[in-house]
Amino acid sequence: NLDKLQPELKDWIESKRGIWSPQVYNMAMGWIKEGLKPRCITRDIKWGVKVPLKGYEDKVFYVWFDAPIGYISSTKEWAKKIGKPEEWKKFWKEECKIYHFIGKDNIPFHTIFWPAMLLANGEYLLPYRVAGLQYLNYEGDKISKSKGWGIFCENLPKTNLSSDVWRFYLTLLIPETNDTEWRWSEFQERVNKELVANLGNFIYRTLSFIKKNFNGEIPKAKLSDKDREVLSLGKKYAEEIKKLIFDIKLKEGLKKLLELSDKGNKYFQEQEPWKNKEKASTTVYVCANLCYDIAIMLSVFLPKSAEKICKQLGTKIGNFEDIGKEKIKTGQKIGKIKPLFPKLDDKRIEELKKITSKVTKYEELFRKEIDFKEFQKYRITIGKILAIDGNKIKIKIGEEIKEAEIKEKIDSSAIGKKIAVLLEEPIKILLAKRGNKVSLITIDKDIKTGVRVR
After folding, report:
1. What is d(CA 44, CA 48) in angstroms, rounded to the nearest whole number?
2. Residues 286, 180: one domain?
C-alpha cells in the first residue's frame, strides 16, 4: 500500500534536495505529485521467486519487490563467509552511507518502491545517494545483442587485455548526466595518450631509472622547497579525488589523477636527472613516493594496475591515510620493472573489435566446467516421481513432497522412477540432453529418497 507511505516518502525525498542529482530528485517527486497507488508485488509467470505462502504456490514475486532485498541478504552472506556474521549490520543498521548505482529507467524502484519497503519495515538504513545514470551507446547507435552491435563482456577475457584498460575508458565514459558513446578510435587514442604515455610512462621512467642508475635501490634525498611542494601534491590531490568519488563524479576523479601523473612527468623532465646524479637521487626519491601515492588513488579505478605499481616499488599497497607520508624509504629495493599498459595499434584494435562483438548464445553463456571439489558443493539427492502434470512434476524427497518445473516433455511412464535432483529453490531435475533427445538420470538400485549423491 504505497499510498499509505506517501507522506513519509515525500519527507524523505525532499530531504535529498541538493544531495541527489536534479534528474533523480525530479523523477522521484514526479511520482509523489502524481499520487502513489497500491502496487501488486506478485506476477503470474512461470519463472521467478515463488511466493512461500499456502494458496499462492502458482505466483512469483515481482522482481523489483524481491531483488532489492538481495542487497541486504548478500551483505549477510558476505559477513558469514568472512567469519564475522554480525558485520553486515555496520552497513544496514549503523552509521553508513548507502549508494545505489543504476540506469535511469530504474530510478523509481530505488527512490520510491525500495525505500517504501525499508520505511515500512523500520529496521534498516535508507539510501543516501541514488546515482541514476544515463545510457551508454556504441558507435552511433544503441547496443543490441540481437543485431550483434556492441561489446559483449563475456568475450573480454578472450582479448588478453587487462580489465583495467577497459575500466579506464569506461570510467571516462560513465554517463553521469548525459548519454555517452563508445568509440573505438577514442578508446585507442585515450589509452595510448593518457594511460600509456602519461600515467604508465611516469611510473616506468621513474622505476627504470632507479633500476639502471641506483642498482634498484631508493637513494637518499636532499629535499628543496620545490621537491617538498611536489611531494605534497599527493595529499592535496587525494582530498580532491576523495571528494569527487563521494559526489559520484568518478570520471572527474580519474581525470584529476591523470593530471597528477602529468605533473609528475613534468617534474621529472624539468629536473633532468640524467645530467646530475646527485640531483637525480632527490628527483627519483620524490617521484617514487609520488608513484606510491598515485597507486593508492589509482586502486579506486584500476585496482590491478595499482597492485602492480606497488609490487614494482617493492611494497604493499596502503590506504588514503598513507598518502603524502613518504612511505617509500631510502634503501628500499624495488622489484622487477615492466611497462604497465600496452600501446594499442590499429591491428590490435581490429582484433579487439572482432573478439568482443561476437554474440554468445544463451546456452554457451551459462555452460561452464567445474572441478570435482566445486561439484561436491552442489546438494544432489535422490527423489521419486509421484505425478506428472504437463511441465509440473511432483517428487518425493525423504518425507517431503516437492514440485519441479521443466521445459522438456517427460512421458508418464517416468512416474515411480527414482531420479537425481538438485536441491535448490525451486528444485531442479537433472537431465541428460543431446540435440532434441532428453533423458532423466535414473537410479538403478533401490535406494531411499533423500539420500545425497556423492
Report:
1. 10
2. yes
Rounded distance between C-alpha atoms, residue 420 and residue 423, angstroms: 10
Q: How far apart are the first and last CA of the chain?
A: 48
Q: How many domains are contained in the chain?
A: 3
pTM, rounded to two decimals: 0.77
- In Å, the largest CA–CA distance within the chain is 90
Amino acid letter for position 333: K
**What gap in Å lies between CA 360 and CA 413, rounded to an integer?**
37
Contacts of 289 (CB under 8 A, 6+ apart): 231, 234, 326, 327, 328
CATH of the domain at 422: 2.40.50.140
Of 348, 340, 345, residue with least CA distance to 196: 340
Phi, psi torsion values for 286, nearest 5 degrees: -60, -45
Grid coordinates belonging to 246: 563521494
Tens digit of pLDDT at every position of the chain (454 positions): 899 999 999 999 999 999 999 999 999 999 999 999 998 999 998 788 889 898 888 899 999 999 999 999 999 999 999 999 999 999 999 989 999 999 999 999 999 999 999 999 999 999 999 999 999 999 999 998 888 899 999 899 999 999 999 999 999 999 988 899 999 999 999 999 999 999 999 999 999 999 999 999 999 999 999 999 999 999 999 999 999 999 999 999 999 999 999 999 999 999 999 998 889 999 999 999 999 999 999 999 999 999 999 999 999 999 999 999 999 999 999 999 999 999 999 999 999 999 999 887 755 555 666 777 777 778 889 999 999 888 889 999 888 888 888 877 788 888 999 989 888 777 888 888 776 777 888 888 888 888 888 7
* 40 shares a domain with 111: yes
Same domain membership, residue 334 and residue 394: no
- Residues constituting the chain: 454
User: Distance between CA atoms of 182 and 146, rounded to whole angstroms?
Assistant: 18
Residue 235's contacts (CB-CB under 8 Å, 6 or more residues apart) are 293, 323, 324
CA distance linking residue 203 with residue 53, whole number of Å: 60
The secondary structure element, H or E, covering residue 9 is: helix 2-14
Domain shared by 217 and 117, yes or no: no
- Show the CA angle centred on residue 445, arms to residues 439 and 448, nearest 5°: 100
Domain boundaries, position 66? 2-133
User: Cβ contacts of residue 13 below 8 Å, gap of 6+?
Assistant: 25, 28, 29, 32, 111
